[in-house]
Design goal:
Layout lengths: L1 H15 L3 H20 L4 E6 L4 E11 L8 E3 H7 L8 E5 L2 H35 L3 E9 L6 E4 L4 E4 L15 E9 L9 E4 L3 H11 L1 H4 L3 E9 L3 E8 L6 H6 L4 H9 L4 E6 L4 H8 L7 E6 L2 E7 L3 H5 L4 H10 L2 E7 L2
């Protein structure tokens, strides 16, 4: 039993990264608890020798004049029959018979090892997800709930839920589909496994995709200064170049729009407006209302602006159901009122 146990724990350390010493402590504590429960002995200890690959269990009894509890006490006469060195108050240790100990230890050790594997796997999964928090990762749909549209995806670390409410509106995901997902939260593990929240609608997902797809952003030459998004419909992302020789907007869009096109395709055709960021509020607001052309920006208050556009630009500036001006307001942090005038 002992030799097999050590072999199992050493294999566990190699394959799961769980230290043998850690598991031995768990096994030792569990064996003591199991023996006390089964035999009713209140004093017992486990002796482990890793070099000899041995594990022994000892019952401990205190030497007393009058024995009241035979399981934890031993008389002076009986103790001195074992050894003349024992006196009142000494502790006599008897090794538990191998047959009895073997049955208890085998069952208990197995339970501890199985539980240890589960805990280690959950800890490793959580640790892996923690490294990916607020990052975009690739996943494959492995299961779909037809009743509510939720899907389970394989992220390479584990299977995780991508709820319908975190999927891009209008998209339908099916088993086998490859998708990008954003890791928003990683919580503590429960009985069902790690609590990982995935999303395809989080605004930061678009930012991370730009960082991955645009070399100038990855290199820190172009900075992402702001983003506003209505997933599945439209995103506005503001960028700024730290190099006067690099056009921030052009770098993000790419030749014939090839760079941004890959991101749009991944986001189920979501429109993306790349905006030139400016410290000048007037210029920033005008750019944020793209694709409309702005004639003038007037400021009504600290964070309120009135924007003047030609009449034929009014509907474009406002956007369908007010979406364009709404996203521009979120991006710039200004309340925007648009007025159209005759050209």
């Amino acid at each position: 039993m002992s030799s097999e146990l050590f072999e199992a724990l050493e294999l566990l350390e190699k394959t799961k990264g769980i230290p043998v010493d850690y598991m031995l402590e768990k096994v030792e504590a569990a064996l003591v608890s199991a023996y006390k429960k089964e035999e009713g002995s209140s004093s017992v200890r486990v002796a482990i020798n890793r070099d000899k690959r041995q594990m022994k269990l000892y019952r401990m009894r205190t030497v007393v004049e009058n024995v009241e509890d035979p399981k934890s006490e031993i008389s002076v006469e009986e103790a001195r029959g074992i050894s003349r060195r024992y006196v009142l108050g000494s502790v006599v240790e008897d090794e538990v018979k191998t047959k009895n100990f073997g049955r208890i230890s085998a069952q208990t050790a197995k339970q501890v090892i199985v539980q240890g594997i589960r805990e280690a796997e959950k800890s490793n999964i959580i640790r892996d997800y923690e490294k990916k928090r607020e990052e975009v990762i690739s996943a494959v749909v492995v299961k779909r709930d037809e009743s509510n549209g939720d899907v389970v995806v394989d992220t390479g670390t584990s299977n995780a839920l991508l709820a319908r409410g975190e999927q891009i509106p209008g998209e339908e995901l099916y088993v086998g589909d490859r998708v990008k997902v954003f890791v928003t939260e990683v919580g503590k593990a429960d009985e069902r496994g790690p609590l990982v929240t995935l999303s395809r609608i989080h605004p930061a997902m678009v930012k991370r995709m730009f960082e991955a797809e645009i070399p100038e952003i990855a290199d820190g030459i172009v900075l992402v200064k702001g983003i506003s998004r209505e997933a599945g419909s439209r995103t506005k992302i503001a960028v700024l170049s730290r190099d006067e020789n690099v056009d921030a907007v052009g770098a993000c869009i790419g030749n014939r729009g090839m760079r941004v096109a890959d991101i749009v395709e991944e986001l189920h055709g979501e429109k993306i407006d790349v905006i030139q960021y400016s410290e000048n509020a007037e210029a920033y607001i005008a750019a944020a209302l793209s694709p409309a052309t702005v004639k003038e920006v007037e400021f009504d208050g600290e964070r309120s602006a009135k924007v003047i556009v030609d009449g034929d630009q009014l509907s474009l500036a406002i956007g369908k159901e007010g979406q364009n001006v709404r996203l521009a307001a979120r991006l710039t942090g200004y309340k925007i009122d648009i007025k159209g005038v005759k050209a």
